[in-house]
Amino acid sequence: MPFPNLFIVGAPKCGTTSMHMYLGQHPDIFMCEPKEPYYFLTDMPHKDRFNAKAYFALFKQAKNVKYAGESSVVYLYSQTAAKKIHCFCRTARIIIMLRNPIDLLYSLHHQLLHIGNEDIFDFAGALAAEPDRAAGKRIPSSASFPHGLLYRKIVDFPPQVTRYFNAFGRDAVKIIIFDDFVQDTAREYQRTLQWLGLRDDVQVDMSISNIAQPLPNLAIQRLLRRNALLRPCRSAMHKVVPTSAIAAVQRAIGAVTQKQRLKTMSPELRAELQEELRPQIEKLSELIERDLTHWCRHPANHQKLVTTES
Protein backbone atom coordinates (compact mmCIF):
# COMPACT_ATOMS: atom_id res chain seq x y z
CA MET A 1 0.00 0.00 0.00
CA PRO A 2 1.56 3.33 -1.03
CA PHE A 3 1.41 6.20 1.41
CA PRO A 4 -0.51 9.23 0.15
CA ASN A 5 1.84 11.43 -1.85
CA LEU A 6 -0.59 13.67 -3.74
CA PHE A 7 -2.62 16.33 -1.95
CA ILE A 8 -5.20 18.79 -3.23
CA VAL A 9 -5.02 21.19 -0.30
CA GLY A 10 -7.54 23.84 -1.35
CA ALA A 11 -9.13 26.16 -1.67
CA PRO A 12 -12.80 25.31 -1.13
CA LYS A 13 -15.27 26.02 -3.95
CA CYS A 14 -12.49 26.11 -6.53
CA GLY A 15 -13.13 22.91 -8.48
CA THR A 16 -11.38 20.54 -6.11
CA THR A 17 -14.15 17.93 -6.12
CA SER A 18 -14.07 17.79 -9.90
CA MET A 19 -10.28 17.54 -10.03
CA HIS A 20 -10.30 14.84 -7.35
CA MET A 21 -12.73 12.75 -9.38
CA TYR A 22 -10.89 13.31 -12.67
CA LEU A 23 -7.52 12.37 -11.19
CA GLY A 24 -9.06 9.27 -9.63
CA GLN A 25 -9.97 8.00 -13.11
CA HIS A 26 -6.31 7.86 -14.18
CA PRO A 27 -4.84 4.33 -14.01
CA ASP A 28 -1.71 5.59 -12.24
CA ILE A 29 -3.56 7.56 -9.56
CA PHE A 30 -5.64 6.42 -6.59
CA MET A 31 -7.77 9.13 -4.96
CA CYS A 32 -9.40 8.16 -1.67
CA GLU A 33 -13.09 8.21 -0.83
CA PRO A 34 -14.27 10.25 0.89
CA LYS A 35 -12.09 12.96 -0.57
CA GLU A 36 -11.67 14.98 2.66
CA PRO A 37 -10.40 12.95 5.65
CA TYR A 38 -8.82 16.06 7.26
CA TYR A 39 -6.12 13.88 8.84
CA PHE A 40 -3.41 16.57 8.80
CA LEU A 41 -5.76 19.24 10.16
CA THR A 42 -4.57 19.34 13.77
CA ASP A 43 -4.70 23.06 14.56
CA MET A 44 -8.45 23.48 13.97
CA PRO A 45 -11.12 21.14 15.37
CA HIS A 46 -13.24 19.36 12.79
CA LYS A 47 -15.88 16.80 13.73
CA ASP A 48 -15.21 14.72 10.62
CA ARG A 49 -11.43 14.37 11.01
CA PHE A 50 -10.21 10.79 10.55
CA ASN A 51 -7.90 9.14 13.07
CA ALA A 52 -4.73 7.39 11.89
CA LYS A 53 -6.25 3.93 11.58
CA ALA A 54 -9.22 5.14 9.57
CA TYR A 55 -7.03 7.42 7.46
CA PHE A 56 -4.56 4.79 6.29
CA ALA A 57 -7.37 2.33 5.72
CA LEU A 58 -8.54 4.65 2.94
CA PHE A 59 -5.49 3.70 0.89
CA LYS A 60 -5.56 -0.08 1.28
CA GLN A 61 -6.89 -0.49 -2.24
CA ALA A 62 -4.16 1.66 -3.78
CA LYS A 63 -2.05 -0.81 -5.75
CA ASN A 64 0.35 -0.42 -8.66
CA VAL A 65 -0.11 3.34 -8.85
CA LYS A 66 2.39 6.16 -8.88
CA TYR A 67 0.24 8.47 -6.79
CA ALA A 68 -2.20 7.97 -3.92
CA GLY A 69 -4.02 11.11 -2.99
CA GLU A 70 -6.62 12.96 -0.99
CA SER A 71 -8.26 16.38 -1.18
CA SER A 72 -8.86 18.03 2.19
CA VAL A 73 -9.35 21.62 1.11
CA VAL A 74 -8.91 23.13 4.57
CA TYR A 75 -5.23 22.14 4.53
CA LEU A 76 -4.54 25.40 2.71
CA TYR A 77 -6.29 27.35 5.48
CA SER A 78 -4.45 25.46 8.23
CA GLN A 79 -1.27 27.02 9.59
CA THR A 80 0.33 23.66 10.37
CA ALA A 81 -0.83 21.23 7.67
CA ALA A 82 1.90 22.14 5.17
CA LYS A 83 4.69 21.23 7.59
CA LYS A 84 2.90 18.10 8.78
CA ILE A 85 2.37 16.85 5.24
CA HIS A 86 6.01 17.59 4.41
CA CYS A 87 7.23 15.68 7.47
CA PHE A 88 5.00 12.80 6.45
CA CYS A 89 6.06 12.76 2.78
CA ARG A 90 8.85 15.09 1.69
CA THR A 91 8.36 14.19 -1.98
CA ALA A 92 4.61 14.84 -2.02
CA ARG A 93 3.04 16.79 -4.85
CA ILE A 94 0.71 19.62 -3.87
CA ILE A 95 -2.18 21.02 -5.93
CA ILE A 96 -3.63 24.39 -4.96
CA MET A 97 -6.74 25.59 -6.77
CA LEU A 98 -7.59 29.28 -6.35
CA ARG A 99 -10.48 31.52 -7.29
CA ASN A 100 -11.59 35.12 -7.07
CA PRO A 101 -11.96 35.30 -3.26
CA ILE A 102 -15.20 37.28 -3.45
CA ASP A 103 -16.90 34.68 -5.61
CA LEU A 104 -15.41 31.92 -3.49
CA LEU A 105 -16.85 33.35 -0.29
CA TYR A 106 -20.29 33.84 -1.81
CA SER A 107 -20.31 30.23 -3.00
CA LEU A 108 -18.87 28.93 0.28
CA HIS A 109 -21.54 30.73 2.30
CA HIS A 110 -24.17 28.92 0.22
CA GLN A 111 -22.49 25.57 0.85
CA LEU A 112 -22.13 26.12 4.59
CA LEU A 113 -25.82 26.94 4.81
CA HIS A 114 -26.60 23.77 2.89
CA ILE A 115 -24.62 21.49 5.21
CA GLY A 116 -25.70 23.21 8.42
CA ASN A 117 -22.36 24.82 9.33
CA GLU A 118 -23.89 28.30 8.88
CA ASP A 119 -27.23 29.70 10.07
CA ILE A 120 -27.12 33.32 8.85
CA PHE A 121 -28.86 33.43 5.49
CA ASP A 122 -27.73 36.93 4.55
CA PHE A 123 -24.21 36.87 3.13
CA ALA A 124 -23.41 40.38 4.37
CA GLY A 125 -24.73 39.42 7.80
CA ALA A 126 -22.49 36.35 7.89
CA LEU A 127 -19.46 38.49 7.05
CA ALA A 128 -20.42 41.02 9.73
CA ALA A 129 -20.63 38.22 12.32
CA GLU A 130 -16.97 37.27 11.94
CA PRO A 131 -15.69 39.24 14.97
CA ASP A 132 -18.27 37.60 17.24
CA ARG A 133 -17.48 34.18 15.84
CA ALA A 134 -13.75 34.70 16.28
CA ALA A 135 -14.59 35.25 19.95
CA GLY A 136 -16.58 32.00 20.05
CA LYS A 137 -19.99 33.64 19.87
CA ARG A 138 -22.92 33.00 17.51
CA ILE A 139 -21.55 29.63 16.44
CA PRO A 140 -24.35 27.31 15.25
CA SER A 141 -24.62 24.25 17.47
CA SER A 142 -24.75 22.19 14.29
CA ALA A 143 -21.41 23.52 13.00
CA SER A 144 -18.88 20.77 12.28
CA PHE A 145 -16.10 23.27 11.51
CA PRO A 146 -16.48 26.58 13.39
CA HIS A 147 -13.26 28.00 11.88
CA GLY A 148 -15.00 27.84 8.51
CA LEU A 149 -17.18 30.77 9.60
CA LEU A 150 -14.19 33.13 9.60
CA TYR A 151 -14.68 33.83 5.94
CA ARG A 152 -12.01 36.43 5.34
CA LYS A 153 -9.29 34.25 6.87
CA ILE A 154 -10.18 31.44 4.47
CA VAL A 155 -9.27 33.62 1.48
CA ASP A 156 -6.07 35.09 2.88
CA PHE A 157 -4.20 33.29 0.10
CA PRO A 158 -0.70 34.87 0.10
CA PRO A 159 0.52 33.44 3.44
CA GLN A 160 -1.28 30.16 2.78
CA VAL A 161 0.41 29.59 -0.58
CA THR A 162 3.73 30.76 0.86
CA ARG A 163 3.62 28.03 3.50
CA TYR A 164 3.49 25.36 0.79
CA PHE A 165 6.14 27.04 -1.36
CA ASN A 166 8.42 27.16 1.68
CA ALA A 167 7.74 23.58 2.72
CA PHE A 168 7.90 21.84 -0.67
CA GLY A 169 9.48 24.27 -3.11
CA ARG A 170 7.67 25.83 -6.04
CA ASP A 171 8.31 22.94 -8.42
CA ALA A 172 6.33 20.54 -6.21
CA VAL A 173 3.33 22.88 -5.95
CA LYS A 174 0.93 23.38 -8.85
CA ILE A 175 -1.33 26.42 -8.82
CA ILE A 176 -4.56 26.12 -10.81
CA ILE A 177 -6.77 29.17 -11.30
CA PHE A 178 -10.48 28.38 -11.28
CA ASP A 179 -11.14 30.68 -14.25
CA ASP A 180 -8.77 28.57 -16.38
CA PHE A 181 -10.23 25.32 -15.06
CA VAL A 182 -13.77 26.36 -16.02
CA GLN A 183 -12.78 27.76 -19.39
CA ASP A 184 -10.92 24.62 -20.53
CA THR A 185 -11.17 21.82 -18.00
CA ALA A 186 -9.60 19.20 -20.27
CA ARG A 187 -6.57 21.38 -20.91
CA GLU A 188 -5.97 22.06 -17.20
CA TYR A 189 -6.39 18.38 -16.39
CA GLN A 190 -3.92 17.44 -19.12
CA ARG A 191 -1.41 19.99 -17.83
CA THR A 192 -1.78 18.56 -14.34
CA LEU A 193 -1.03 15.06 -15.60
CA GLN A 194 2.02 16.35 -17.44
CA TRP A 195 3.22 18.06 -14.28
CA LEU A 196 2.81 14.75 -12.45
CA GLY A 197 4.84 12.98 -15.15
CA LEU A 198 1.92 10.79 -16.25
CA ARG A 199 0.45 9.94 -19.64
CA ASP A 200 -2.10 12.58 -20.57
CA ASP A 201 -4.21 10.75 -23.16
CA VAL A 202 -6.53 9.01 -20.68
CA GLN A 203 -10.27 9.21 -21.36
CA VAL A 204 -12.04 10.89 -18.44
CA ASP A 205 -15.70 11.57 -17.68
CA MET A 206 -15.73 15.32 -17.11
CA SER A 207 -19.39 15.83 -16.27
CA ILE A 208 -19.93 18.43 -13.55
CA SER A 209 -19.47 16.71 -10.21
CA ASN A 210 -20.56 19.15 -7.51
CA ILE A 211 -23.63 21.18 -8.45
CA ALA A 212 -24.68 23.79 -5.90
CA GLN A 213 -28.13 22.96 -4.55
CA PRO A 214 -31.12 24.99 -3.36
CA LEU A 215 -31.00 25.40 0.38
CA PRO A 216 -32.89 22.79 2.41
CA ASN A 217 -34.80 23.55 5.56
CA LEU A 218 -32.23 24.47 8.23
CA ALA A 219 -34.26 22.82 10.98
CA ILE A 220 -33.80 19.45 9.27
CA GLN A 221 -30.10 20.09 8.78
CA ARG A 222 -29.70 20.88 12.48
CA LEU A 223 -31.58 17.73 13.42
CA LEU A 224 -29.26 15.60 11.27
CA ARG A 225 -26.17 17.18 12.80
CA ARG A 226 -27.23 17.55 16.43
CA ASN A 227 -29.10 14.33 17.13
CA ALA A 228 -26.81 12.10 19.18
CA LEU A 229 -28.26 8.94 17.64
CA LEU A 230 -27.82 10.14 14.09
CA ARG A 231 -24.28 11.52 14.48
CA PRO A 232 -22.47 8.12 14.52
CA CYS A 233 -24.42 7.08 11.42
CA ARG A 234 -23.40 10.27 9.67
CA SER A 235 -19.76 9.84 10.62
CA ALA A 236 -19.75 6.21 9.49
CA MET A 237 -21.41 7.15 6.21
CA HIS A 238 -18.60 9.58 5.36
CA LYS A 239 -16.05 6.85 5.97
CA VAL A 240 -17.55 4.23 3.68
CA VAL A 241 -19.81 5.94 1.14
CA PRO A 242 -18.30 7.55 -1.99
CA THR A 243 -18.33 11.33 -2.22
CA SER A 244 -20.59 11.23 -5.27
CA ALA A 245 -23.18 9.11 -3.42
CA ILE A 246 -23.23 11.44 -0.42
CA ALA A 247 -23.79 14.37 -2.78
CA ALA A 248 -26.74 12.49 -4.32
CA VAL A 249 -28.29 11.95 -0.88
CA GLN A 250 -27.89 15.64 -0.08
CA ARG A 251 -29.64 16.53 -3.33
CA ALA A 252 -32.49 14.15 -2.47
CA ILE A 253 -32.93 15.73 0.96
CA GLY A 254 -33.01 19.15 -0.64
CA ALA A 255 -35.66 18.00 -3.11
CA VAL A 256 -38.19 17.13 -0.42
CA THR A 257 -37.61 19.96 2.01
CA GLN A 258 -38.33 23.66 1.97
CA LYS A 259 -36.14 25.40 -0.60
CA GLN A 260 -34.96 28.95 -0.35
CA ARG A 261 -33.04 31.08 -2.82
CA LEU A 262 -29.99 33.13 -2.01
CA LYS A 263 -30.15 36.80 -2.80
CA THR A 264 -27.74 38.02 -5.43
CA MET A 265 -24.79 39.81 -3.91
CA SER A 266 -25.39 43.54 -4.08
CA PRO A 267 -23.07 45.58 -6.30
CA GLU A 268 -22.29 47.72 -3.27
CA LEU A 269 -21.11 44.75 -1.20
CA ARG A 270 -19.07 43.41 -4.10
CA ALA A 271 -17.39 46.78 -4.54
CA GLU A 272 -16.61 46.94 -0.81
CA LEU A 273 -15.06 43.47 -0.84
CA GLN A 274 -13.09 44.21 -3.98
CA GLU A 275 -11.53 47.23 -2.31
CA GLU A 276 -10.96 45.39 0.98
CA LEU A 277 -9.32 42.37 -0.64
CA ARG A 278 -7.35 44.28 -3.26
CA PRO A 279 -4.05 44.24 -1.28
CA GLN A 280 -4.26 40.46 -0.82
CA ILE A 281 -5.01 39.91 -4.48
CA GLU A 282 -2.08 42.11 -5.48
CA LYS A 283 0.23 40.16 -3.16
CA LEU A 284 -1.01 36.87 -4.56
CA SER A 285 -0.44 38.11 -8.11
CA GLU A 286 3.17 38.92 -7.26
CA LEU A 287 3.66 35.64 -5.39
CA ILE A 288 2.50 33.36 -8.19
CA GLU A 289 3.73 35.68 -10.95
CA ARG A 290 0.35 36.14 -12.58
CA ASP A 291 -1.78 39.26 -12.72
CA LEU A 292 -5.10 38.55 -10.99
CA THR A 293 -6.07 42.14 -10.28
CA HIS A 294 -9.05 41.87 -12.64
CA TRP A 295 -10.67 40.08 -9.69
CA CYS A 296 -10.86 43.51 -8.05
CA ARG A 297 -12.60 45.11 -11.02
CA HIS A 298 -14.96 42.80 -12.87
CA PRO A 299 -18.50 41.87 -11.76
CA ALA A 300 -19.26 38.16 -11.38
CA ASN A 301 -21.55 35.91 -13.34
CA HIS A 302 -24.01 35.21 -10.51
CA GLN A 303 -25.72 32.39 -12.36
CA LYS A 304 -22.45 30.50 -12.55
CA LEU A 305 -21.81 31.16 -8.88
CA VAL A 306 -25.02 29.49 -7.79
CA THR A 307 -25.21 26.64 -10.26
CA THR A 308 -21.69 25.24 -10.41
CA GLU A 309 -19.28 23.83 -7.93
CA SER A 310 -16.79 25.95 -7.89
Question: Descriptors for this entry?
Answer:
single chain, 310 residues, alpha/beta, Rossmann fold, five-stranded parallel sheet, 15 helices, 5 strands, globular, disordered C terminus
Q: Which architecture name does CATH use? A: 3-Layer(aba) Sandwich
Shape: globular
How would you classify the helix and strand content by structural class? Answer: alpha/beta
Radius of gyration: 19 Å
Summarize the helix and strand pattern as letters.
Answer: EHEHEHEHHHHHEHHHHHHH
Q: Which fold name corresponds to the CATH topology?
A: Rossmann fold
Overall pLDDT, averaged?
86
Tally of discrete structural domains: 1
Number of helices: 15
- In spatial order, strands of the major sheet run 2-3-1-4-5
Q: Count all strands and give the number.
A: 5
